């Protein structure tokens, strides 16, 4: 009986050695070499654009006007330049009241009305400095139709959508002829801000 036990043990040892040998053979199959290749490096430079607009004016900003009567208009010329590197999709004029509102801005019909015009060349100033007038030699167009003084609307096809381009603008506030005695002795302070928005994003 002892001999039989010894024989059985030997068979188990041999079986174990066979498994180890098979594992070694499989491992050896992964040691063969492989061919590789790579392309020539391509230099790639990516940078983000800059959205920037700059506003200048012959007179100090903000401008002031006093003593308006129904039918009066106050106008100031401004130059709006796209000094960024990126085309724009829109340029909006945002006008807001700072301080206490008055009937001049709360009455959207007979209160102050805002209009913006553009000229291909700089406006020519005439009249006294206290009440200047501005003339466009040719090609003047309306880029913001007359509407309430408090507004937030895009300019129509402004030149400044293109980097490096400038809009020569005439910004006007008019007190309508229909304004009655309730508008006497009133005042309002407005903040004017041109807001630029980047072009539509897409594949580059």
What does this structure look like?
- The chain is of the alpha+beta class and 204 residues long.
- It starts with a helix and ends in a 6-residue tail after the last strand.
- The protein contains 2 helices and 10 strands, in the order αβββαβββββββ.
- The strands form 3 sheets. A 5-stranded antiparallel beta sheet has the order 1-2-9-4-7, with no helix packed on it.
Q: Which features characterize this protein?
A:
204 residues, disordered N terminus, 10 strands, five-stranded antiparallel sheet, 34% strand, alpha+beta, three-stranded antiparallel sheet
Brief overview:
The chain is of the alpha+beta class and 204 residues long.
Q: Report the span from N to C terminus.
A: 86 Å
Number of helices: 2
Give the strand line-up of the largest sheet.
Answer: 1-2-9-4-7
Query: Which percent range fits the helix content?
Result: 10-25%
Q: Compute the average pLDDT.
A: 78
Radius of gyration: 39 Å
Write down the overall geometry.
elongated
Biggest sheet, in brief?
A: 5 strands, antiparallel
The oligomeric state of the chains shown is single chain
How many strand elements? 10
Q: What low-confidence regions span 5 or more consecutive residues with pLDDT below 50?
A: 1-26
Assess the beta-strand content as a share of residues. Answer: 25-35%
Structural class: alpha+beta
Order of helices and strands: HEEEHEEEEEEE
Task: Show the helix and strand layout.
Elements: H1 2-28, E1 53-57, E2 73-82, E3 88-98, H2 103-106, E4 113-119, E5 124-126, E6 133-135, E7 141-148, E8 151-154, E9 166-174, E10 189-198
Antiparallel strand pairs: 1-2, 2-9, 3-8, 3-10, 4-7, 4-9, 5-6
